[in-house]
């Protein structure tokens, strides 16, 4: 049986090695064979699927960037967020961040200006306070100067007579005195006003022998000024006088040869000193 099967396979008609000519001299058109190789080269020239997906994503991102660029930032609508552009990286998020940064910079500048204004105000207040303190110090100094000026004016020495001529000097000897002359004589007509040489308190008034009518004014430092031979008193004990105040009037009482003022200067109420030198010491020229 096995041989019959082999023979049967051997009886199959083998295809003709050369085509049979068509009847009537016509040749049957032959269909070109399909070649899988040409189609394969076409598909190989197309991009792969991941590349196509990337191109589509770029297109969508470019559309989102155009949408973001056209957004009105000043509109009250809420901020819209779109996909960032793959080409520029711009998006609504970056635009909003820029606006927030500008607002932050403006706020920071405003705070800086406010701090500067506050510092200027503080400096002005300090300057005004210092000026007030300076003015107060000047006012106090002026008051002290005025007080001192009054004190100086009270203690400033003046000449006792407006019109006179000197006759006897301190230290001279004569039969008119039991000892040397202890004062300075200003000769003037009777009734000539006598002025206080310096400010002080009247501690004595009355008749005193050879001195005649005598007034004693004690200064703040204890110095005594004696005004002798007066015709009339002008003050009383306890009166406070200032330089130039009226003491009395020129006369000829006591041991005299004519009307005149006998002036003595006794520091601390002790022994007399030269009145001429005392007047010169206080800036006067008798």
From TrEMBL:
Protein name (Swiss-Prot/TrEMBL): Murein DD-endopeptidase MepM/ murein hydrolase activator NlpD
Region described as Disordered: spans on this chain: 1-45
InterPro entries: Cell_wall_metabolism_enzyme, Dup_hybrid_motif, M23ase_b-sheet_dom
Basic and acidic residues composition-biased segments: 1-16
Organism encoding this protein: Nocardioides panaciterrulae
Classification of source organism: Bacteria, Bacillati, Actinomycetota, Actinomycetes, Propionibacteriales
Listed SUPFAM superfamilies: Duplicated hybrid motif
MF GO annotations: metalloendopeptidase activity
M23ase beta-sheet core domain boundaries: 180-275
Compositional bias per record (Basic residues), positions renumbered to this chain: 25-37
Alphabetical keyword list: Hydrolase
């Amino acid at each position: 049986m096995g041989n019959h099967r082999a023979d049967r396979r051997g009886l199959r008609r083998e295809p003709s090695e050369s085509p049979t000519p068509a009847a009537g001299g016509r040749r049957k058109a032959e269909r070109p064979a399909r070649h899988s190789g040409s189609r394969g080269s076409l598909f190989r020239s197309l991009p792969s699927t991941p590349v196509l997906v990337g191109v589509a994503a770029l297109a969508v991102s470019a559309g989102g960037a155009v949408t973001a660029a056209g957004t009105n930032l000043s509109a009250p609508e809420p901020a819209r967020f779109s996909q960032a552009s793959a080409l520029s990286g711009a998006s609504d998020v970056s635009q909003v961040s820029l606006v927030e940064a500008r607002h932050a910079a403006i706020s920071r500048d405003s705070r800086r200006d406010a701090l500067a204004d506050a510092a200027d105000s503080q400096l002005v207040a300090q300057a005004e306070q210092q000026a007030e303190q300076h003015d107060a110090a000047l006012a106090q100094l002026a008051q002290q100067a005025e007080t001192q000026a009054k004190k100086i004016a009270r203690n400033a020495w003046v000449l006792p007579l407006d019109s006179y001529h000197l006759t006897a000097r301190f230290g001279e000897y004569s039969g008119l005195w039991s000892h040397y002359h202890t004062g300075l004589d200003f000769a003037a007509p009777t009734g000539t006003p006598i002025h206080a040489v310096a400010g002080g308190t009247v501690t004595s008034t009355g008749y005193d022998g050879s001195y005649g009518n005598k007034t004693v004014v004690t200064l703040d430092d204890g110095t005594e000024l004696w005004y002798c031979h007066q015709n009339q008193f002008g003050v009383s004990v306890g009166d406070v006088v200032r330089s130039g105040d009226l003491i009395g009037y020129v006369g000829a009482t006591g041991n005299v040869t004519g009307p005149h003022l006998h002036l003595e200067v006794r520091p601390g109420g002790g022994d007399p000193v030269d009145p001429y030198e005392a007047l010169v010491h206080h800036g006067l020229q008798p």
